[in-house]
Amino acid sequence: MAILVAGGAGYIGSHVCKMLHSKGYKVIVYDNLSHGYKEFAKWGEFIPGDISDVELLDNIFKHYHIDAVMHFCAYIEVGESVVDPQKYYENNVGNTIKLLKVMRKNNIDKFIFSSTAAVYGMPEKVPIKEDDKKDPINPYGKSKWMVEQMLEDYDKAYGLKSIRFRYFNAAGADEEGEIGEAHKPETHLIPLILDAAIGRRDSIKIFGTNYDTKDGTCIRDFVHVNDLADAHIKGLEYLLDGGKTDYFNLGSGEGYSVYEVIEAVKRVTKKNFKVVETDRRPGDPAYLIADSTKAKEKLGWEVKYSLDEIILTAWNWHRNM
Ligand code: UFG
Description:
Layout: E1 2-6, H1 11-22, E2 26-31, E3 45-48, H2 54-64, E4 68-71, H3 78-83, H4 85-105, E5 110-116, H5 139-158, E6 161-167, E7 169-171, H6 189-198, E8 203-207, E9 219-220, E10 222-224, H7 225-240, E11 246-250, E12 256-257, H8 258-269, E13 274-278, H9 293-299, H10 307-318
Parallel strand pairs: 1-2, 1-4, 2-3, 4-5, 5-6, 6-11, 7-10, 8-13
Antiparallel strand pairs: 9-12
The site of uridine-5'-diphosphate-4-deoxy-4-fluoro-alpha-D-galactose has 22 residues, from helix 5, helix 6 and strand 8.
């Protein structure tokens, strides 16, 4: 089986490539390296390229007889998406349409798509179930929701089978410490706290301490990147077995506050660092917690990593990067 992983040199994509490779799949890592790293593209064959390059994709699909495509290449910065929505719609939606078109041309009808908890916007209740209201509040979340809706239509009209995975807060790193989370720029909580623990930053800022939560800080659901990778393998196997188009939340079901995550980093790393309380960051929901019962029931997916294990694996990679 040959799988093309678009965005396979990025954070989540590279962990998926490593797992696919370990299970004996032929992996084509396709990445334009705008946000990914060449050093992360070591499981399978690396082909540099952009998902808008339909000619190159057409040649690859023909040459390698690709069975399924996984798609991880999207811009993910919420704040930037508000300032420059065109960048988000053009890449996350427009270029995804190009990728799907060249897949159809080559009769590739299995597609795994990275979506996000951002499709729910400000949820009315937690834990969030898949069929709860979708009301994304920024162009990033909207771009993901648009593709999700398109994929329903592509199945009805063209028989293209897809799985959409709505990630909650992806975190942690490969246990062998070969790959990890290194966004450019970094905006995510755990790597920023680790930078403070290492001394690469003076402090960690807490964005808002007056939310209606147990300690006033936001509550998030952290899920290990290898648990996400495992879901992708299960989703792929489900489609290869003739499974129907579907969509799943991927989270642990446990919520931790920003304070609790900071305390957990101090405990795991045995480092102390300065914590600064600042204003809220616009657009942050107070709670994001997944109900992932559907992924458990339909795919047999369960998380294996605790918050401390997420932090420990992230720390082991982060301090050596
Ligand atoms: N936070 C801080 N200080 C920081 C960075 C983050 O207090 O320096 C807080 C945020 O305000 C938030 C929590 O830590 O309350 C988590 O923030 P992240 O930026 O790590 O993650 P988000 O929950 O904002 O983002 C995640 C995904 C996005 C997705 C979003 C849905 O990474 O892709 O959930 O709202 F869009």
